[in-house]
C-alpha cells in the first residue's frame, strides 16, 4: 500500500545553499537519524550526485536503497532504483525563493514491499517528513554559520 505525504518549511537561506546541503549525501547520516550510512555511487558532470546508496533504518527495518537524483536550480527529486524493503519511493524538494528566505516543500511517496501496519507506516513517514524539513533546516543553518 503506497502512502504519500508532503510538508513545508521556511529556511533562512538561498535555494543554492539548501541544494548544496542536500547534495552532500555523505553527510546525511549526521543530521538524519534514519540514515545509517550514505555514499555517492555516481555523479553528474557538475559534481552533483546522480546515484547514491544508503542504509536506512525505519519502522524497525533496515534497508539498503539505491536512488537516482534529478537536479534543477529550484528542485531536487529522486526515485528508487533498488531496495530490499520497498517497491517504490519518489520524493521531491521544491524550493521557492522569498526574499532572503526559501520556502521548501517536500513531497514523498513510499510503497513498501513488505506488509507494514498502516499506523506504523504513517508514523514512520511522518518522522521522515519532519527530518526532511525541520532536520534539513537545522543542517542548512548550521552549515551556513560555519
Descriptive tags:
49% strand; globular; START-like_dom_sf; 146 residues; Polyketide_cyclase/dehydratase; Alpha-D-Glucose-1,6-Bisphosphate, Chain A, domain 4; Cyclase; 7 strands; alpha+beta
Describe the fold and architecture.
This protein is of the alpha+beta class. The protein has one domain (3-145): Alpha-D-Glucose-1,6-Bisphosphate, Chain A, domain 4. Helices cover 28% and strands 49% of the residues. The chain is built from three helices and seven strands. The protein has helices at residues 15-23, 28-31, 118-145, and strands at residues 3-11, 35-43, 49-58, 61-71, 75-82, 86-98, 101-112. A seven-stranded antiparallel sheet has the order 1-7-6-5-4-3-2. A hairpin with a 3-residue loop joins strand 5 (75-82) and strand 6. It is globular, with a radius of gyration of 15 Å. It starts with a strand and ends with a helix. The model has no long low-confidence stretch (mean pLDDT 94). This is Cyclase. InterPro entries: Polyketide_cyclase/dehydratase (IPR019587), START-like_dom_sf (IPR023393). It holds the Pfam family Polyketide_cyc2.
Amino acid at each position: 500500500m503506497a502512502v504519500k505525504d508532503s510538508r513545508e518549511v521556511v529556511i533562512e537561506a538561498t535555494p543554492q545553499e539548501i541544494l548544496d546541503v542536500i547534495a552532500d549525501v555523505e553527510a546525511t547520516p549526521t543530521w538524519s537519524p534514519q540514515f545509517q550510512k550514505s555514499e555517492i555511487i555516481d555523479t553528474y558532470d557538475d559534481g552533483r550526485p546522480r546515484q547514491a546508496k544508503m542504509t536506512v533504518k525505519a519502522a524497525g527495518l533496515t534497508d539498503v536503497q539505491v536512488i537516482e537524483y534529478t537536479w534543477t536550480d529550484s528542485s531536487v527529486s529522486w526515485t528508487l532504483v533498488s531496495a530490499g524493503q520497498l517497491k517504490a519511493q519518489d520524493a521531491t524538494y521544491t524550493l521557492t525563493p522569498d526574499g532572503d528566505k526559501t520556502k521548501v516543500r517536500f513531497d514523498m511517496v513510499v510503497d513498501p514491499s513488505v506488509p507494514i501496519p498502516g499506523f506504523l507506516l504513517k508514523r514512520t513517514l511522518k518522522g521522515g517528513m519532519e527530518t526532511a524539513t525541520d532536520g534539513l533546516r537545522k543542517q542548512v543553518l548550521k552549515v551556513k554559520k560555519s
